[in-house]
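Q: Hi! Curious about what Hippurate hydrolase looks like structurally. Here's the sequence.
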Amino acid sequence: MTQQDLASLQQDTEFLDRLTEIRRDIHRHPETAFEEVRTGNIVAEFLQNLGMEIHRGLGKTGVVGTLKGKRPGQRVIGLRADMDALFIEEKTGLDYASTVPGKMHACGHDGHTTMLLGAAEKLAKDPDFAGTIHFIFQPAEEGVGGARVMIQDGLFEQFPCDAVYGVHNAPKEPLGFTSTRPGSFMAAGDTWEVRFKGTGGHGAMPHLGTDPTIAAGQFIASIGSLISRKVPSNDAAVVSVGHISGGDYNSPNIIPAEVTIRGTARSYRPEVRDTLEAKIELLAKSCAAGQDVEATVIYTRRYPPLINTPENTEIAVKAASTAFGETMVDPKAPPLGGSEDFSFMLEKVPGAYVMIGNGDGPGSAMVHTPMFNFNDALIPYGIAYWLNVVDLELGEAAAA
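A: Let's find out. The predicted structure is below.
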């Protein structure tokens, strides 16, 4: 699909109005992780009406639709969209704002789902490609790893793929501006918790007990040195403290017996991730030993780094460049500090992930905020991108 084809698609008001209503209907009825029953029903019914085979239940509420091309071919690709919402109270004031208190589509997954449905319709009406497409609609991307659960439930055993692709909208970026990079594109996102435990005691007689606050303070003051002294200078990593608790607000004269610190660790290479896990524990136990207290460390690996395969990244870049123009694509974008559970899929199957601009006009808001809204003008851009990925993988472009 060329830039001219995209322009024609943008003029197809009947098609886009219908998709926009689907997007806004999903937006009105947000469903959080593993609750996406209504959304899954919309997706399944839409795909079934296109004549596709449907499978439900992977990752509890996941939906997979399969479409075979009318030309013979053995190659199989997966196209993935996420469906879940967030626990945020919407404050947009839109006439299609969330009707569910405390929940909203604050990350654009309603739009991601709609863009892939639109591409599925176009492809089903004219499946002029060689091979098979699995349309993967995934639950629970936000923080609980729905991709991992779908894989554990047998996603790639039941639906083997030679390559898999994902898309996310990019707030504050010009509409359609696409960014990606080969290799590490998004960070591993881990959480850690350290509990320092002593005896506590009277604030006037600290020598009669053991004080976990001193160990906790030393730990917090030293944790930044893990990046500057334990991670190579040409690597990027971030360790942040997000929670500290100990003692009672009403008892400032009591040394607490326990102090808990929690935070996150982000990195882009498995080796750096290993280093952070090992050194956080070593630092905590060293600080504890110096104060005769105990340290218990819990390090939880949540999302691995998202690593794009170079060959598939080239396909993604060409797909976007053909539809949007070369000046609208950054093929070597800086790595992003956020995490994305599509990384679990890329651990199993080669593929690529891109960000496509959601628009940077007045009123645009960041994801994960009460004012965010997916830009419906992005729908045809997402469809054009998906159609070009299919053409490059399975269509005339692949055969050329």
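A: A fun detail: The mean pLDDT is 96.
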